[in-house]
Specification:
This protein is of the alpha/beta class and 422 residues long. It has helices at 29-33, 98-101, 122-132, 135-141, 154-160, 207-212, 226-240, 255-266, 292-295, 297-300, 335-346, 356-362, 401-410, and strands at 12-13, 71-81, 86-96, 109-115, 145-149, 243-252, 273-274, 304-310, 321-322, 331-332, 353-354, 371-374, 384-389, 395-396. The strands form 3 sheets. It has a 10-stranded mixed sheet, with helices on both faces. Strands 1-14 form a two-stranded antiparallel sheet. A two-stranded antiparallel ribbon has the order 9-10. A hairpin with an 8-residue loop joins strand 9 and strand 10. Helix 4 runs parallel beside helix 13. The longest helix has 15 residues, at 226-240. It is globular, with a radius of gyration of 20 Å. The chain starts with 11 loop residues before the first strand and ends in a 12-residue tail after the last helix.
Length: 422
């Protein structure tokens, strides 16, 4: 998906084939990431103000938390999907420190979910993308439990339904609720003038979409219920581990960033803060298919957001509109439109303020062209930020600044209302 990336120093490319794949890792990345440490200002020994919400697992003896162990472990979970008439086995990786595994009810551990991009894989994401960006190191330094769920490709999608007749596989990704909508991608009528060299969108309809009657020429991913997967997974982790429900954080790259936006709309009472990177909703879905973002304004005013985007991104353009990639020609919401929606939800200033100096004081080793802007004076007392950097799609700001800024941001927030996992 997408085109081969042109290296733009000092951004770090974590993909060889573009388009949010999350697979083509840098040469020698394992040796590189073993040396990555989290900057001390992104590590907090003091939780954010407010009262923790210990999960059910906090009241289980530590020795009964059988699935919690030091390091990265790949596991599975069965998820009911009534609409498809099946129970499906889904997979994920969990990364925890020994301290997180031994957490008690007086100091439960934060929980973070990270979603890979198209063609990605959860375990590969944690060992590659999350490691090279500084994300994994900072999560571990802060004793978070981190979940890396795995998306479905066409073969896994069909296998769950007993359908092996897969005509086209567009890779593993996430259902963002747009299946069957034929207004979100380029049409033959668009292919003129400056767009005459662009190919018509290269779509794929997975077996789950066929069964649900959600096929369309703009389809590219599964129609399995990925929201139910996340809800089931978080509920199970909360039962089995000592998690602070007021400190559940969410993020993702590319299609995983799109899914981050979708999850905030579908689970508005769950997340304390979110941090998508180069992932924006498709045209017409900024507030959700039925304005879910606005209808849940009260609950979402408890969710802070920092969004990252590369200035040279042409796969999911910073300014929205058509992606001019040869086989990835969808229409996207502009970043500023998305941030204005969040500013409205939180009751912030309409015009953002440059806070670049503050961010660089926190994360001193980040690339110098990183600039951050905040919609200040929020009625919610939360924060709404966007950070821009020189880089194409699939590239993250150099100096492990993404992990540093993300954890510094997360460590400021918890939810005060009782958390809903639905």
């Amino acid at each position: 998906v997408g085109s081969v990336l042109e290296e733009v120093p000092p951004a770090v490319s974590t993909e060889a084939d573009g388009g949010g794949s999350g697979l083509g890792l840098l040469h020698g990345i394992k040796e590189l990431t073993e040396q990555i440490l989290c900057e001390h200002k992104a590590v907090s020994d003091t939780p954010p103000p407010g009262v923790p919400q210990p999960s059910e697992g906090c009241y289980r003896p530590v020795q009964m938390r059988a699935l919690c162990q030091e390091g990265l472990v790949e596991l599975s979970i069965v998820v009911p999907e009534p609409a498809l008439g099946i129970n499906i086995t889904r997979h994920y990786a969990i990364d925890a420190t020994q301290t997180a595994c031994q957490a008690q009810s007086d100091e439960p551990t934060p929980l973070m979910l990270w979603f890979h991009g198209q063609y990605g894989h959860g375990k590969g994401e944690s060992e590659g993308w999350a490691a090279s960006s500084g994300y994994r190191a900072c999560a571990r330094e802060n004793n978070f439990i981190t979940l890396y769920p795995f998306g479905l490709d066409a073969e896994a999608d069909g296998a769950a339904l007993g359908d092996v007749n897969v005509s086209k596989n567009a890779g593993s990704g996430w259902n963002v609720g747009t299946g069957g909508d034929e207004t979100t991608c380029i049409t033959k009528d668009d292919l003129q003038g400056a767009l005459s060299s662009i190919s018509e969108t290269d779509f794929a309809c997975y077996p789950s979409c066929t069964k649900l009657g959600q096929c369309g020429r703009c389809n590219w991913s599964t129609c399995h219920d990925d929201v139910a997967f996340v809800q089931t997974l978080v509920a199970q982790i909360a039962r089995e581990h000592c998690v602070d429900l007021s400190r559940i954080y969410l993020g993702g790259q590319s299609n995983g960033g799109m899914f981050t936006h979708f999850l905030t709309q579908e689970m508005p009472g769950t997340f304390a803060a979110v941090n998508p990177i180069y992932g924006l909703p498709l045209k017409g879905y900024a507030a959700g298919a039925h304005a879910e973002l606005l209808r849940s304004k009260g609950a979402l005013a408890e969710t802070a957001i920092v969004e990252f985007h590369g200035r040279q991104d042409s796969t999911i353009p910073l300014n929205g509109g058509l992606s001019p990639e040869s086989t990835w020609s969808w229409y996207y919401t502009p970043l500023d439109e998305m941030m204005s929606l969040w500013s409205y939800i939180h009751g912030c200033d309409e015009t953002p303020t440059d806070v670049t100096e503050q961010v660089h004081n926190i994360c001193k080793h980040g690339q110098k062209d990183l600039t951050c802007f905040e919609y200040q004076h929020c009625d919610s007392k939360k924060r709404v930020l966007k950070c821009l950097y020189d880089g194409h799609h699939g590239q993250v700001p150099g100096g492990e600044v993404f992990g540093c800024v993300s954890m510094w941001f997360f460590n400021q927030f918890r939810r005060t209302l009782p958390v809903s996992l639905a």
